[in-house]
Specification:
Elements (H helix, E strand, L loop, with lengths): L3 E2 L6 E16 L4 E8 L2 E10 L4 E15 L4 E7 L16 E8 L1
Length: about 110
């Protein structure tokens, strides 16, 4: 699985932005699609979420940003979740699914 580890001497505040887009498929009304930020394997914040109001067959995406404090050696990962009973496929369109990590201060 993917993760970003803070390099030695680079602890501080980081801005983390991410997006996930699921390919077009059938979704059930009431389903919650969420994007979470984990630090050192622990859920830290929900970057974004979307609840579906009706049954729909379409691409579904969610995105968000958070500013967090990290120490050298900490690691983060991003996880998309949905409430459907079957697995879902992410789009393969360039730029749909991405993570941006920017060190913004000490």
């Amino acid at each position: 699985a993917w993760k970003f580890t803070v390099p030695a001497g680079q602890g501080g505040k980081y801005r983390v932005s991410a997006a996930v887009v699921f390919a077009s498929q059938a979704w059930n009304a009431g389903n919650l699609i969420s994007l979470y930020l984990y630090i050192n394997g622990n859920p830290t914040s929900r970057l974004g979420s979307k609840q579906l109001d009706a049954n729909i067959t379409a691409r579904q995406g969610v995105s968000g940003t958070d500013t967090i404090a990290l120490a050298a050696g900490d690691y983060i990962d991003i996880r998309g979740e949905h409430g459907e009973s079957a697995a879902r496929t992410l789009t393969t369109t360039g730029g749909d699914n991405h993570v941006s990590i920017e060190r913004i201060g000490n």
